[in-house]
Sequence to fold (194 residues):
Amino acid sequence: MNRLILASTSPRRAALLRQIGVAFEQRAVEVDESPRPGEVAAETALRLAVAKAEAGRPRAAPGQAVLAADTLVSLDGEPLGKPRDREDFFAMLRRLSGRRHEVYTAVALAWEDQIKSFLSVSHVDFRPLLDAELAAYWETGEPQDKAGGYAIQGLAAIFITRLEGSFSGVMGLPLFETAELLQQAGIPLWSTTG
Fold:
């Protein structure tokens, strides 16, 4: 039995955990991800990461920890979710064009009778974007399930002029903070034996 459950079906989060040699099982959890009135992006990300970790606890065996994360892209204090459709994607990326935005990724770990969380905040600058390249990017299918409508590790890397913060955090799982939590719970890194 692996000592860790990743409460996410995200292939990006799974790849990042594998990158640091952590053995885990992936399980989906259901959590209402609607922001609450007056809640800022950082608060929403932390609340949702903790809620996802808590939602995974009932499915964990004794001795298993549950890791969860939530990523929100924010522009001018407004969270940008996953694009609903092509029109929403264009509106979102046009707003990000030539601007700086924030990416908040919270990570939470529930184990034994504890739950701890960290928040990673990154600043991402985009170059000005052309409608023709946005249309071509949409057609790749990549932006359709991504917060903010883009993937930093994918084709949209050419849009980014500057990153201040955590590359892995923008991808969806800040590895520094994740490693800190796993070490507190006694879960080994750089070992695929769990």
Remarks:
- The two ends are 8 Å apart (CA to CA).
- Strands lie at 4-6, 25-26, 65-75, 78-80, 100-111, 114-126, 160-164.
